[in-house]
Fold IS21-like element helper ATPase IstB.
Amino acid sequence: MSELTGNRIRTTAAKLGLPHLAETINEYTRRADEAKMGYLDFLDLVLSEELAVRDDRRFRQGLRLSKLPHHKTLDEYDFSFQPELDPRKVKDLATLSFVDAKANAALLGPPGVGKTHIAVALAVAACRAGYSIYFTSLDDMVRNLKAAETAGRLVNKLGTYLRPSVLVVDEVGYQPLERAEANLVFQVISKRYEKGSIILTSNKTFSEWGQVFGDEVLATAILDRLLHHCEVIAINGPSYRLKNRLKAIERETEVA
């Protein structure tokens, strides 16, 4: 490829919004020459590489906007520490069929068992697959919605929690809600019903949600919509955080 042709291709690629192609055209042509590629194979190489770069860029941007507390994956989850948890159930969720169906997933169990880790890992997988995601604790969501309602911007703020394909709601049940606050949660759940997926974590059983939301009738209405299409996984094992803390104490004791 002549220098003139290379410069022309780089200029055209930049105008088409393909900066990666503009930077790597010489590398592509070198690989094509070495492999003695035909025209169609070369075109397939360029388009495939550009798509991969664009997907990776979208993935990284999606993670930046997601508010996820970390980007842990299921490969980092120690299933051996939770022998009562069937890994197949979690890996079935990781196929994202429930997201395709606009259904929900609920992870229940005591603090520290890895509910948030799994929820985040599912969200990361969904983001990788092209879905928009957003993470919030229940308390943060309620606080933001209350502030927006006071400022007359509730409809606009609701969009934050309604637009994503997957909404992760963490720590349901750690703080009881007043009825007005529970009604804001109901608005999110009901408006997302069969329109987008929710992944939630809770340290309370569903039978305790009446206490969490301060109203049995409202809690029932929330659960009715949430559980109609929902995969539920209970994790009733030891705490990861306590395990790590005990190991740290043992190390400190040995040093002392």
